[in-house]
Design brief:
Elements (H helix, E strand, L loop, with lengths): L6 H7 L8 E7 L3 H12 L4 E4 L7 H5 L6 E4 L7 E3 L6 H6 L2 H10 L4 E4 L3 E4 L3 H14 L3 E3 L4 E7 L2 E6 L2 E10 L14 H8 L4 E7 L3 E2 L28 H4 L4 H4 L1 H6 L5 H6 L3 E7 L7 H5 L4 E6 L3 E3 H10 L6 E4 L6 H6 L8 H6 L4 H7 L2 H4 L8 H12 L1 E3 L3 E2 L7 E6 L4 E2 L4 E2 L5 E3 L6 E3 L4 H16 L3
Parallel strand pairs: 1-2, 1-10, 2-7, 10-22
Antiparallel strand pairs: 3-6, 4-23, 5-6, 8-9, 9-10, 11-19, 12-15, 12-18, 13-14, 13-16, 14-15, 16-17, 20-21
Helix pairs in contact: 2-6, 2-19
The structure holds flavin-adenine dinucleotide.
The site of flavin-adenine dinucleotide has 42 residues, from helix 2, helix 3, helix 7 and helix 19.
């Protein structure tokens, strides 16, 4: 998509210091938040100029949702966001609901589909949504200029003077919609934070979020030596597996049950990498509010990678994970492994063979403690059953960190929301300055929540600016 240089923008690039161009509202950043704000403000008859540093607007929108933009969610609540003040995003979300966004997308004629957890995606490329948004901004008289970086802004007697690559520009109000440093491949940068800080705002330390969880090599379970058939106690007295059971097992397993638990852990990531399955993930040590901890969003797909845990479940956990704390995974959500172990029809089988019917074999081998996993289910003690169930339903991992901003879909932290009025998104420190979108310390879970926050905060500021 190309953006036509606007009359105001042309004047901007040729500006002479004595007569800088003037506009009512200058929006910094042509991402979803800035464009939505421009659409709303231009619809009110205000002169709106959007300045975008990149050569194209909406680069993150274009790559969102795998290119199909998970643009909202049928169920958007403040609890789905991490924010310095949990109530902050309530008013803007209430004033612009997912249903309103869905109607707007329908009015634009864009086809959508609902996926799990109420996530609404386009079924056409995200550039179609960007095109409709840009067209609305233009037809309402708004102007978008690309390749124009805002370097600084300062208060004047009747508004702001904004320093740009193309010279200064005067505006009665300024909206900062410059995003975050996440995903620099699509233009993410901390420039917006710096502009807000230069206006006196406080930065809540930013961190990569909705990113893979990194695990130290020994944190991933290694497949254990579990023979396919039950092993009687007398045959394990030597603590060695029968030769037949050792054939074809990985080196760690061949050394027998004792060897399995001290297996070369560096094999584990390679062994499990690529396994993807539905799980329920939780953060038992981080004290999530009960309503959030119970939310169905935590049941989603998990992917083992060479570095740790990825997939939607791990990405969501990364938003609330705290260093030094564990994440817990239920590998059989909705199925009771205890019931399988207790079922008399499976009494002659081993826990391993029962689990193998539910999970990929490599994972089943890796999860279960080798000793009870190789006994007949009927003969297991109560303690052994509990140990096996904990291994499957409450497996804990201790991440060493979260991947960096290059793999982070969003940035946690941001401009402190206590300095921003929640209905208008106007600075409490500098009236006439508005702050919206991912720039703020409002970060949603995976599932359309971040784009919805961009729309909702953009609409709130677009309605409030110069009102
Ligand atoms: C790979 C990926 C997939 C994603 N998928 C989804 C999804 O499916 N659903 C969802 O809800 N969210 C998704 N997100 C998150 C979502 O894209 C962002 O939360 C959203 O784009 C934030 O909108 P924004 O307008 O606040 O910021 P941005 O989209 O980052 O836009 C900010 C704009 O400001 C410009 N800018 C910055 N500084 C300056 C300056 N000084 N002068 C001029 N311009 C400047 C930037 O170039 C940028 O264009 C995804 C993110 C990524 C990276």
């Amino acid at each position: 998509m190309s953006s036509n240089p606007s009359p105001a923008a042309e004047r901007l690039s040729n500006a002479v210091p004595s007569s800088p161009p003037r506009t009512d509202v200058l929006v910094v950043g042509a991402g979803p938040a800035g464009l939505m704000c421009a659409r709303e403000a231009a619809g009110r008859g205000l002169r709106v100029l959007v300045l975008e540093q990149s050569d194209r607007p909406g680069r993150k929108l274009l790559v969102s949702g795998g290119g199909k933009a998970n643009f909202t969610n049928r169920r958007v609540l403040p609890l789905h966001y991490r924010c310095g003040d949990p109530a902050f995003c309530g008013p803007a979300l209430k004033a612009f609901s997912p249903a309103v966004m869905e109607r707007l997308v329908a009015a634009w004629g864009l086809p959508v589909e609902e996926r799990g957890h109420g996530q609404l995606f386009l079924t056409v490329p995200a550039r179609n949504l960007l095109h409709c948004l840009m067209e609305d901004v233009r037809t309402r008289g708004g102007e978008v200029r690309t390749r124009c970086t805002v370097r600084a802004l300062r208060r004047t007697a009747d508004g702001f003077c904004v320093e740009t690559d193309g010279g200064p520009c005067l505006a009665r109000a300024v909206v900062l919609a410059a995003g975050s440093p996440a995903w620099p491949q699509a233009g993410g940068s901390p420039a917006g934070f710096r502009l807000a800080q230069a206006c006196g705002h406080t930065l809540v330390p930013p961190f990569p979020a909705l990113a893979p969880l990194l695990l130290p090599p020994d944190a991933l379970p290694a497949p254990a030596a579990v023979p396919a058939r039950p092993v009687e106690p007398s045959r394990t007295a030597s603590r060695r597996l029968p030769p037949a059971a050792r054939r074809g097992l990985p080196p760690a397993a061949r050394s027998g049950p004792g060897g399995a638990s001290s297996s070369p852990v560096e094999d584990a990531p390679a062994t499990l990498a690529g396994i993807s399955l539905p799980v329920r993930i939780s953060l038992p040590e981080t004290g999530l509010p009960p309503a959030l901890a119970r939310d169905p969003v935590w049941q989603d797909d998990l992917l083992f990678t060479h570095e740790g845990l990825s997939g939607p479940a791990a990405l969501k956990a990364s938003l609330f994970w705290e260093p030094g704390k564990a994440v817990q995974v239920d590998f059989l959500p909705g199925t009771s492994f205890r019931a399988l172990l207790d079922d008399p029809r499976g009494g002659r089988r081993t826990p391993f063979s029962l689990l193998r019917q539910q999970l990929p074999q490599r994972l089943a081998e890796a999860l279960l403690p080798p000793e009870p996993a190789r006994r007949r289910a009927a003969g297991l003690s109560r303690a052994a059953r509990e140990q096996l169930c904990a291994a499957v339903h409450a497996r804990r991992f201790l991440p060493s960190g979260v991947a960096d901003f290059r793999k982070a879909e969003v940035c946690g932290g941001g401009i402190d929301v206590r300095e921003v009025e929640p209905r208008r998104l106007e600075s409490r420190l500098l009236p006439g300055l508005f702050l919206i979108g991912e720039l703020l310390d409002v970060t949603g879970l995976l599932g359309g929540y971040n784009l919805h926050w961009a729309w909702a905060s953009g609409v709130a500021a677009g309605r409030a600016v110069l009102s």
